[in-house]
Amino acid sequence: MIRFNQIFSIFILLSAFVLKAEAQQSKYWVVFTDKEVNAEPAISEKCKENRRMLGLVENQFSDLPLTKKYTTDLEKSGIQPLVKSKWLNAVSANLSDAQIEKVKRFDFVKEIIPIESQAVLANIKHINKNVGKVSNLADVEKQQNDDLRVDFAMKQIGIEHFLDAGLNGKGVTIGVIDAGFFGANDTQTLKHLFERKQILGVKDYVNPKKKDYFGERESASDFHGTEVLNAITGRNFKENFQIGLATNANFYLARTDSGNKEFRGEEDNWMAAMEWMDSLGVRLINTSLGYAKGFSNPKESYTPEQMDGKTSVIARAAKMAVDEKGIVLVVSAGNEGDDSSWRIISTPADVDGVIAIGATNELGMKMGYSSIGPEFLTYMKPNVSCFSLFGTSLAAPVITGFVACIMQAFPNLNNKEIRTILEKSANLYPYGNNFIGYGVPSAKKALKLAAKRPLSEVEPRIIEVAENEKQVEIPMPVGEIAVVFHKKNATHVITQESVKAKYNFIPLKRNPSVKQTTVMTREEVVEVIWKPPNP
User: Active-site residue 107, yes or no?
Assistant: First the structure.
């Protein structure tokens, strides 16, 4: 007869065994071979309408739901799917070595992709958890331009041109994927969203059982999404302050980041949120989250070389979103610019087609913390930048509001056209660099470009410095400040500096390591090309 203490001892041993087995599990994507092609695509009529308007394939294979029998068979074998991705035709799951062998024997399993051991998913969130008070915003609809107060980011991009055109994001639906929206319903500058029912839906992928999306706080990061939302759409009628541009847009919100710990399930959550928003017909999505390194388990981190736009699963999903689904995806570049062991952007900002946003100071120089584009990429990263003292997390929503205004005025533009307009309207174009991309977008230029009207602004000019010349002088009024980017080639910056004109010019001296120099003054952009000296 087994006594109670014996039973208790056996229970402890069994528990220890189970815990040990669980500890040996790793996370994987289980990719299926096929789908039921006769199944009904899991997308809304709005999504189909958008695709027809943009000339995209209306019904895509990736829209079909997973074959239910496959997920059921996994569950019957003791494997619990965590996230189901119709885009990847896969589920994520924690698997032991024994379970991996079991899964391999299923004839419907095409591939098992390790998430941990090959560092496919790793995350360094460039959430600024110490975000300070951001300037409040104004009532765009009433066009009270005379006494309208805005912060510097709004002035930098030229908000008055959107206001004069009556643009405030009306008719545009924006998805925000972030770390939580605690207190949004009690925030004065977001009051209009709740009064006018502009929030169309909310999902919490970290805690699916949550019912009070705005009143339950689980971590300090739960404020982050509220700050991001504020930077997209915030306004204050009484004080006539404006924080964001898209004050009349509608929103779907998704919490995918727990804030309490660093784990790969957050990236799974992000993918699920993307698929949800796409199925509802959302064309514009802001995500101020990024993945690179910094997990509690260092083995889970990426290497810088993997920020190539195709290695991470989240990059693959982002690529599908922009190429196949027509989504305008705006992502913060990252806050690792001062981290000598990293410096570069994180994923999915590394994806070609995704609009990665850096941060500048008042002069238009890269903020020290703002992540730069890797030199091995063949395309520009970041794409554009704007002013932000509080991280690229709050630069991205400024540009999201900017895009919403363009989409309101020109709803038939596709995501590639919007990205091109954004880049061409920026103040450095076409001489972008891996510090701030093409620079700061201009509302005035963007509206003209979208309407296919000629630009009246001064075109950038090129100065070629002869082989035997050691210095060139750039004319500029005395006392004015220019921003100078010294580059090793056309796009990769070695150093940046601000230079104040002591005379009626600023001198640039030849440096053997500098091949090209971009000079940004108040009036123009000058590209200096240093011809190599004769051997």
Answer: no
